[in-house]
C-alpha cells in the first residue's frame, strides 16, 4: 500500500508544477548532460528526441517535432526536448539511454524512462495526440460489457474492475494501481456491479482472488498480469518487440478460434517462467502475418502453427499439440537458445542424436476442444481439398524468393535426411519477423554507419 500511496503523492507534485510559457522559437528545449535530469523531472511527461545532424531522418523530423511542441503549448504538464548525440556535452545521456539509431524518441514520466519509445507516425498531430493520451486519466469508464470487449480488442489486454460505485471501499486502490501501472497496462472500470477484478485478453481471463482493498496484493497480481510471458505481436509493436533482441517462440493462430492461444498461454505460464528475459513467447494473428507462414510452407488453413524465430532463421515446431509434452517443448526451446538447431542446419551430417521431435502423436490426447473448435465429423469436400492443395503449392513456390527474389533464400529449405527417410526435426527457413526491426528506410542505424 505504501507503493501506491507514494505514487499518489508523486502525481500531486507533478500536477502542481507551474508550467512556463512556450516561446515559438524555443518550443523544443535543447538538452545535454547538465540539464537533462532536471528537465525530465520537471514535468509529468517528457519526450526527448535523440538525433544527429548528419542523419537525414533527424533533419526531416526536426520541423515536425517543433510544430508538435507548439501544438501542445503550455496548457499541459508535458514538454518536448532534444539531444544532439554528436555533441561532446551529451555523450553521457547517449550512453545511458542506449541510443542505437537516429532519431530515437524516448518517453519519460515524472523523470522515469518508459520502456516504450514513440514509434508512431512522424507528424505533428500524431505526436501531440500521443502525448495527450499519456496525460489522460488512467482509468477508462465503461457503461456496458460491449465497451469492455472493444477496449480489450483495441489494447489486446486490460485490467477490468467491477464496482458498485466510485465510493466503494476498493475503488481508490484500483485508481492508484492504474496510476502506478498505467504505462504497462490499460485499465477500465464498470460501475453497478459486485466488486471484482479481472485481467482480460482476447483469448483468456484471469481473476484476482485476493483482498481488493490490499494494495500490496493488488500490485503484485497486476505486475504479474501486466508483464506477461506471452505477448501479442502486431504491426504497431513489432519494431519494439524485435528490437529487444530476444528470439521468438511464436504461435500463429486463427483469430476466429482462440483455443490454441489459450493452450499456448497456459502451458507457458505454468512451466516456462524461468525463460523470462531469455526468449519472447509471442502470439500472432495468422490472418495478418501470412508472409511468415508462406516461408514456413504453411497457409491459413494450417493454423495454429508454432515456430521459433532467431531473426536469422525460423524453425517450425511440427506438431503444435506436443507443447503439452513439456519436456519436448522445453528441449525445442533449449535447442534454439544453445544454437543446436542452427548448427545442425548448416551441418546436417552431425545429426547423430535421436530425433526428439518425431511427429508421433497417437498416444497422446489433447485437452477437450470447445464445441465450436472443430465441427465434429465434418469432412472436406473434394473441391475444398483441391483448393487447399493449390494454395499450399503457391505458398511453397513463393517461399524461396519472397524475401528478395534473387534465389538466396533457397538455403532456407529444410535439409534432406540422410538415407531418404522423412526428417521430423524442425524445418528451418530464413527469418521474416526480423524485418520488423528498425528499418534503414526510417532510421540511421548506428552499427551500419560504424561498418562503413
TrEMBL record:
Record SUPFAM superfamilies: Thioredoxin-like
Using the UniProt annotation, give all residue ranges assigned to the region (Disordered): 391-452
Signal peptide boundaries: 1-24
Key words, A-Z:
Signal
Per the record, its GO cellular-component terms are: endoplasmic reticulum membrane; endoplasmic reticulum-Golgi intermediate compartment
Write one Pfam family the protein is assigned to. Thioredoxin_6
MF terms in GO: protein disulfide isomerase activity
Q: Does the keyword Glycoprotein apply?
A: no
Q: Does the keyword Methyltransferase apply?
A: no
Biological process per Gene Ontology, one example term? protein folding
Positions of the Thioredoxin domain:
16-136
- PANTHER family from the xrefs? ENDOPLASMIC RETICULUM RESIDENT PROTEIN 44
In Swiss-Prot or TrEMBL terms, this protein is called: Thioredoxin domain-containing protein
Amino acid at each position: 500500500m505504501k507503493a501506491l500511496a507514494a505514487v499518489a503523492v508523486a502525481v500531486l507534485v507533478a500536477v502542481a508544477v507551474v508550467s512556463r510559457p512556450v516561446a515559438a522559437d524555443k518550443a523544443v528545449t535543447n538538452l545535454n548532460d547538465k540539464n537533462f535530469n532536471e528537465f525530465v523531472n520537471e514535468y509529468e511527461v517528457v519526450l526527448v528526441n535523440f538525433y544527429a545532424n548528419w542523419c537525414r531522418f533527424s533533419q526531416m523530423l526536426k520541423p515536425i517535432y517543433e510544430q508538435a511542441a507548439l501544438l501542445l503549448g503550455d496548457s499541459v504538464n508535458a514538454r518536448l526536448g532534444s539531444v544532439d548525440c554528436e555533441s561532446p556535452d551529451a555523450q553521457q545521456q547517449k550512453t545511458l539511454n542506449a541510443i542505437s539509431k537516429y532519431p530515437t524518441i524516448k518517453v519519460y514520466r515524472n523523470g522515469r524512462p518508459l520502456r516504450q519509445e514513440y514509434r508512431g507516425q512522424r507528424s505533428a498531430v500524431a505526436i501531440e495526440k500521443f502525448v495527450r493520451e499519456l496525460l489522460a486519466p488512467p482509468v477508462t469508464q465503461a457503461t456496458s460489457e460491449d465497451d469492455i470487449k472493444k477496449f480489450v480488442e483495441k489494447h489486446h489486454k486490460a485490467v477490468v474492475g467491477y464496482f458498485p460505485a466510485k465510493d466503494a471501499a476498493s475503488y481508490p486502490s484500483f485508481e492508484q494501481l492504474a496510476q502506478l501501472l498505467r504505462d504497462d497496462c490499460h485499465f477500465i472500470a464498470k460501475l453497478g456491479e459486485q466488486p471484482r477484478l479481472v485481467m482480460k485478453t482476447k483469448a483468456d481471463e484471469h481473476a484476482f482472488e485476493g483482498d481488493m482493498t490490499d494494495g500490496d496484493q493488488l500490485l503484485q497480481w497486476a505486475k504479474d498480469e501486466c508483464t506477461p510471458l506471452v505477448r501479442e505481436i502486431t504491426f504497431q509493436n513489432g519494431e519494439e518487440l524485435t528490437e529487444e533482441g530476444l528470439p521468438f517462440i511464436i504461435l500463429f493462430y486463427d483469430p476466429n478460434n482462440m483455443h490454441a492461444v489459450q493452450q499456448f498461454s497456459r502451458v507457458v505460464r505454468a512451466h516456462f517462467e524461468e525463460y523470462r528475459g531469455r526468449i519472447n513467447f509471442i502470439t500472432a494473428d495468422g490472418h495478418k502475418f501470412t508472409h511468415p507462414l508462406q516461408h514456413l510452407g504453411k497457409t491459413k488453413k494450417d493454423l495454429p502453427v508454432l515456430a521459433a524465430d532467431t531473426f536469422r532463421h525460423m524453425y517450425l515446431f511440427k506438431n503444435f499439440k506436443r507443447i503439452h509434452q513439456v519436456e519436448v517443448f522445453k528441449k525445442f526451446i533449449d535447442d534454439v537458445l544453445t544454437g543446436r538447431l542452427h548448427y545442425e542446419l548448416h551441418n546436417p551430417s552431425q545429426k547423430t542424436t535421436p530425433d526428439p521431435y518425431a511427429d508421433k502423436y497417437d498416444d497422446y490426447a489433447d485437452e477437450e476442444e470447445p464445441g465450436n473448435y472443430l465441427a465434429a465429423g465434418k469432412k472436406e469436400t473434394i473441391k475444398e481439398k483441391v483448393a487447399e492443395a493449390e494454395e499450399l503449392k503457391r505458398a511453397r513456390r513463393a517461399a524461396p524468393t519472397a524475401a528478395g527474389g534473387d534465389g538466396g533464400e533457397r538455403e532456407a529449405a529444410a535439409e534432406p535426411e540422410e538415407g531418404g527417410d522423412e526428417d521430423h526435426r524442425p524445418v528451418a527457413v530464413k527469418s521474416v519477423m526480423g524485418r520488423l526491426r528498425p528499418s534503414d528506410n526510417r532510421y540511421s542505424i548506428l552499427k551500419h554507419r560504424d561498418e562503413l
